[in-house]
Amino acid sequence: MKLGMIGLGKMGYNLVLNIMDNGHSVVGTDVNAEQVNNIIRDGAEGAFSIEELVEKLESPRVVWVMVPAGEITENVIHKLSGLLSAGDIVIDGGNSHYKKSIARGKLLDEKGIYFFDVGTSGGTSGARKDACTMIGGDPEVFKTIEPLFKDVSIQNGYLYAGPMGSGHYLKMIHNGIEYGMMAAIAEGFDILEKSEFDYDFEAVARVWNNGSVIRSWLMELTENAFSKDPKLEGIRGIMNSSGEGKWTIEEALDLQVAAPVITMSLLMRYRSLEDDTFTGKVVAALRNEFGGHEVVRK
Amino acid sequence: MKLGMIGLGKMGYNLVLNIMDNGHSVVGTDVNAEQVNNIIRDGAEGAFSIEELVEKLESPRVVWVMVPAGEITENVIHKLSGLLSAGDIVIDGGNSHYKKSIARGKLLDEKGIYFFDVGTSGGTSGARKDACTMIGGDPEVFKTIEPLFKDVSIQNGYLYAGPMGSGHYLKMIHNGIEYGMMAAIAEGFDILEKSEFDYDFEAVARVWNNGSVIRSWLMELTENAFSKDPKLEGIRGIMNSSGEGKWTIEEALDLQVAAPVITMSLLMRYRSLEDDTFTGKVVAALRNEFGGHEVVRK
Amino acid sequence: MKLGMIGLGKMGYNLVLNIMDNGHSVVGTDVNAEQVNNIIRDGAEGAFSIEELVEKLESPRVVWVMVPAGEITENVIHKLSGLLSAGDIVIDGGNSHYKKSIARGKLLDEKGIYFFDVGTSGGTSGARKDACTMIGGDPEVFKTIEPLFKDVSIQNGYLYAGPMGSGHYLKMIHNGIEYGMMAAIAEGFDILEKSEFDYDFEAVARVWNNGSVIRSWLMELTENAFSKDPKLEGIRGIMNSSGEGKWTIEEALDLQVAAPVITMSLLMRYRSLEDDTFTGKVVAALRNEFGGHEVVRK
Amino acid sequence: MKLGMIGLGKMGYNLVLNIMDNGHSVVGTDVNAEQVNNIIRDGAEGAFSIEELVEKLESPRVVWVMVPAGEITENVIHKLSGLLSAGDIVIDGGNSHYKKSIARGKLLDEKGIYFFDVGTSGGTSGARKDACTMIGGDPEVFKTIEPLFKDVSIQNGYLYAGPMGSGHYLKMIHNGIEYGMMAAIAEGFDILEKSEFDYDFEAVARVWNNGSVIRSWLMELTENAFSKDPKLEGIRGIMNSSGEGKWTIEEALDLQVAAPVITMSLLMRYRSLEDDTFTGKVVAALRNEFGGHEVVRK
């Protein structure tokens, strides 16, 4: 199969290599011309604009979009909707909100262009080899691109999830679970860290990765992290987030599902962004008002 | 009625004044002799030891203990158990754990001494005038000291709650509710503070105190606090706690009652005691491991 | 002052009576003609359509909208935008989302019509007498209608909050705080209910309303509720919600404010709507898988 | 090595088989004589009392206790303290509270008997083969029994964790993390279940087990569970718990560590034990009081 890849960042670049390793050919483009030159050196065909990329593909064209979610994805897909023809296929492999994907899919559908929303997990190493992909879109047309997903993914690592939106939805929930699992692991080590015992955290993570109920890739990554910095003394506990955890919670609220564990994992991330809180100030002021408890002055 | 007061701190001292205002006489003692001299000047009889205080009372003696919960209360009550006689009455008006109160009550009961555990709310101003008291102990003997509670408390502000332990239990739960209410108010103002609008917080608290569903003494105190420092710029949001919120949650866990609101209010207090968390470090390290997300280095 | 009231439900009807008690005259309309006839009997002028209501007012007209939030409010305000003239004033006293209010305000503004978003608290009894109102809109024009708010509200019970949207925003946060306070109170009584003591809940609420730190209107309502049904045996613990708690949490998420107490109060409301949960099934199935723990079969 | 095993339940029996597979010999006893006869048939030496078991071992004796935590473990260890001699070794492989283990270790230490507290993870299948063990106790004496743990555990699946108590502490935290991870997974599927998409949950769990960030043994067990009952229609969502999650939270409270994710996972388990809540009744009653919102009557 021959396809186009728009976006040659960490994820897209590795995916191109992965796709080529599996015997497909790729035309790659990126706003950064250097990345295009790099991918040419690595054996792909290059294009210095989306127009050029589209021209270098033959009908029915397959274009994989791997650019940052939000406005950039929006712009790329709008541009593609003008350049592509009926029967062509657009794949959005980024972390778009599933409602946006449904809307974009409908837009493309009006022109007879097929749209697939693909959640991609496994990090950059997964993109390079053995990805995990969750795909939403037309079930019949999917069969024509199924070999691609079978090839880039680890064994049993791709899933046709259902109609448009269902792929990104699944990735959203995956990330919500990920937030909760990470927080559970982290809280456990936080208690260990304050306990009366002096544990070797790397050794603890290692034993938990061998035979315990909580063995997991995240615990293996925990082991790796402690192997590099045994007490994590070099870093600060600022927990950023890139949106999918928040979307998961907003979705849970809309569906009236009580998901307190995933919710609290996000709320503590937000809490970590602040050195001090207004909530804390109000409570401290109130304790002073009724009980004369001293407040800490700046 | 004549009674002894052990402990002339913020709460005990104000209670003595309150009790005397209501026509009773008091013998007061404290480890701090200066407080004893002060209370003598204010019209009470003084005692410079618990022994002296006991001697200055007549059978059946009534002794109110108003000292810090924990070891000090334990020691005072053990000492009293040796000095008092059958038919005497001990009142613990502090914030003791109800299980300790039950144990102490049984100890005194073996010698025929009656024990009452009294939760006291309303802060120091309430102790001085119009307290709120919740009393556990023998229902018949309670009648002999009921006038005392009726006098020191605001109208309808005392309650015979049930057997030994039930008074301190009620105070514990009262404080648990207080934690939750304070946190709810504080979180609301935290959102206001970060909102796109520029509210006058004192004015907001005032309007909410007049006719709204959330009007409350805590909201009045919030109004007071903002009247002194409109944005609470002078203080830090460190939320200490003195134990009863924690006991409430431990009790809820023992009873298998899901009380997430009160629980989270305490957990956020603990969170406020730390500048950074190990939980946060682990999550930040994990995000770096799988996604290459940058960590903030120290 | 003479004004129009659109919507004669529980809140609107009581507000009309309240406004008339304060010497103003009102033209009232409602989709339900019976309510119009009722309000005529109670001394107001009636109108059987919005068009008629607008005709019966003189420029600059003041129209208070008190209809259900959402589509109905949207339709009424769109209709008014076509009927009113520059210089007229529209007040939305319902529970609209502040972002909608800002959008509606801008729409009316294009025609020179002034818009005020008004959060109204205090329940139906407050609407009848001594309401609590929080008002957003143009500060200069507000002065022309300020007497109205001063009259219908309890003393100090109205607040000019800021520009358009700030009134409904404040009401939203008020309700979020309300959710948290109610949950804190309810959790406290839940622990009491499962405790080893046999408390009289009405008496407990009463003593807490007299002198304690947690005295509040909500605790007074708790006392009322227990006076009617001492153990609440006649009702089920299904906690519905009407949207403002959810909006508060969505706003907190957008602002990255950690507000776990208000959030958990809503999540437990959602949990109460389900007899059983899929979350629970998955956890039960997992416990069976790894530990052989028995599951409860249907 | 020859050792005694007290307790031939699911865990103990499988451990004996595991130990014998590795070339050690075992004397087994149980309160249930049938299990003793079974283990004799399976190649172990049997004992019908703890006394008999102790007699059949030679100094320095090694006795592994694998009985239910709490009173039974307490009784067995007290009995052993009377039967064993200086230099003997007692291993508690059950889920005892680490504070109890420290106390029991000190008791045995007074008689010169060594105590090791061992957390065992991996479920019954792990006990049979490839267990995960975390061991607390004397570091020098540990070397004499290390081969045993190396043999029964999977590769890298045993850890000398530190002094007495540290093994059970680590197992406690392991279970706390397990609670949080399970809840995160379960909440994710709960949202999927209520979503607009019709997912095949077994297929979802499978794809997540192949290449995704959340791949884990718990997700594999989730896949197994859905393979047997695709929508879990046959079971109820009642989430029991056996104590270690609660201990984790109590420990976090004592250390003032905010661990909201693990905490909420337990609280939702408690919530699942109730069909209706008093919390819900109070909130419903309050909504009725101030807003006239209808309550659901029984």
From TrEMBL, chains A, B, C, D:
By its UniProt entry, which Gene3D superfamilies does this protein fall under?
N-(1-d-carboxylethyl)-l-norvaline Dehydrogenase, domain 2, NAD(P)-binding Rossmann-like Domain
Tell me the protein's name: Decarboxylating 6-phosphogluconate dehydrogenase
Fetch the SMART domains from UniProt: 6PGD (SM01350)
**Pfam families in the record, alphabetically?**
6PGD (PF00393), NAD_binding_2 (PF03446)
Q: MF terms per GO, please? A: NADP binding; phosphogluconate dehydrogenase (decarboxylating) activity
Oxidoreductase as a keyword of this entry, yes or no, is: yes
Q: Which UniProt keywords apply?
A: Gluconate utilization, Oxidoreductase
NCBIfam families noted in UniProt: gnd_rel, PRK09599.1
Biological processes annotated in GO: D-gluconate metabolic process; pentose-phosphate shunt
Q: Which residues form the 6-phosphogluconate dehydrogenase C-terminal domain?
A: 167-298
Q: Which PANTHER family match?
A: 6-PHOSPHOGLUCONATE DEHYDROGENASE
What is the similarity comment for this entry? Belongs to the 6-phosphogluconate dehydrogenase family.
Q: At the top level of its lineage, which domain of life is listed?
A: Bacteria
